[in-house]
Amino acid sequence: MLNVKNDFFLSNVGDLISAASIHNEHTILIVDDEINNLQLLKRTFRNKYKILTASNGLEGLEVLKNNIDDISLIVSDHKMPIMEGTKFLEEANKIAPDVIKILLTGFSDIEIITDAVNKCNLFQYILKPFNPEELLEVVKNGLDKFDLISSKSIILKDLKELFYKTIKSIASALDAKDPYTHGHSMRVTLYSIILAKELNVPSNQLEAIETAGLLHDIGKIAIPESILCKPGKLTDDEFMIMKSHPANSEKLISSIKKLHEISPGVKHHHERWDGKGYPDKLQGEDIPFAARIIAIADTYDAMTSTRSYRVALSHQTAIAEIEKCAGTQFDPVLAKKFIEIQDIIEAAKEHPEEYYMKYSTLYQRIH
Q: Which CATH architecture has domain 177-365?
């Protein structure tokens, strides 16, 4: 017997699939230049599906663009004036790759068929004259595939949203341990992804940097609050305990497969360019790229935020310090870029929520 937690999860997954797959009325786009063929196809589908029509490929593309959220399947003739069916379906595939595409042709030319399959993401071709019942069965199978793709997309979107919210919750819970660092994880993440985007980092790396930024201090959850929130200078022993947090962060996330790729950025964000950082005294480009970015963002936020032991420094003072430490504490190339975009960084500092929604890869993927 399934436990309550699993039952709840499975029932919600079932709801997601049902929401995606129950189409009371699928919409089919029929494209054919011959009026008799168009009427026959309309009669074949009219009692089962909503129907949109076009008399040539160019018109079909316009109909598709104007109804992209409604159309599930396209049935197109091949031999048409202005634009042949294979070219139309090739262009349609660029607009709506998940829409099912069926080609009607009076020619069993292997080159046409191969071209259609390779370029159009063709579900099936049907030779004319066609049997309406056989065509209906092919269409039904195509719509089943469409429903499966749609349900998968909805589930993946939901799981991404759950992952994003979980990561954000962990970061917020961590910041809550110390009232002086409220919002620190989000701001460090924000400055990191701004810098990364300005460096034209690929989107998959942006997501990893963002996740690493949100979780970079998760190891502090194991640091006693008497040390974490101490108003004065830490003793040597206390500082050693504080320095354990990057390695603790790696331990906490290393068991989660989804987070394997971000662990180096989390573990090494306190390394220094000159090799005098911790925990492993890495130097220069041996320090993971994400860690080098987070190191600058982390230091900037630490300087421009009020802490238990001092008031916040100004933006200008923090930028001057980053410039001074380029090539010793920080990657000089990244530090130079951070200074170049300091106006964006300062604006983000003043309006973090607004800029986070603008720059966040994780947020944009679920909205």
A: Orthogonal Bundle (1.10)
